[in-house]
Design brief:
The chain has 121 residues and is mainly alpha-helical. It folds into two domains: 76 residues, Multidrug-efflux Transporter Regulator, Chain: A, Domain 2 (Orthogonal Bundle); 45 residues. The protein has a two-stranded antiparallel ribbon with strand order 1-2. It starts with a helix and ends in a 7-residue tail after the last helix. The protein binds a DNA duplex (9 and 8 nucleotides) through α2. InterPro entries: DNA-bd_dom_put_sf, MerR-type_HTH_dom, MerR_fam. Keywords: DNA-binding. Pfam families: MerR_1 (PF13411). This is MerR family transcriptional regulator.
Length: 121
DNA sequence: GTTCTTACA
DNA sequence: TGTAAGTA
């Protein structure tokens, strides 16, 4: 199907569909004058992309995840699990950094309560 | 009329 | 992401 049809079928703008392709999340064949041609299961792929995006995954992670869906059953599960555990580790590292920043900020605030001059230091 | 690429807001 | 321009 053509990009306009896929757009109407998924409710995703043509602009965004091209962006997904640019990010390596969606693939398409080219025909005639270079027009994109999508497989019949493209709507399902787009739905999967939107689901993962809604789960807070970055386009980068989703891109790495796409090859997993080529397989099925346990293979798919192992592949996805591997990427998601990595994603979880990254997320926890960020939480740790934010927590440290929070502690530091609270410290500055607490000190300024006793001596406002501390704010300029 | 639809799609394409590039580029700017 | 939207939109404009100039094509195919």
């Amino acid at each position: 199907m053509k990009i306009g049809e896929l757009s109407r079928a998924t409710g995703v703008s043509i602009r965004l569909l091209r962006y997904y392709e640019e990010q390596g999340l969606l693939v398409s064949e080219r025909s005639a004058g270079g027009h994109r041609q999508y497989a019949a299961d493209a709507p399902a792929t787009v739905a999967r992309i939107r689901g993962l995006l809604a789960a807070g995954l970055s386009t980068r992670v989703i891109r790495d995840l796409m090859p997993c869906f080529a397989g099925d059953g346990i293979a798919l599960q192992a592949c996805v699990l591997d990427h998601l555990t990595t994603q979880l580790a990254d997320l926890e590292a960020r939480i740790a950094d934010l927590s440290d920043a929070r502690t530091a900020l609270l410290g500055i605030l607490d000190a300024s309560t006793r001596s406002p001059a501390q704010l300029s230091a």
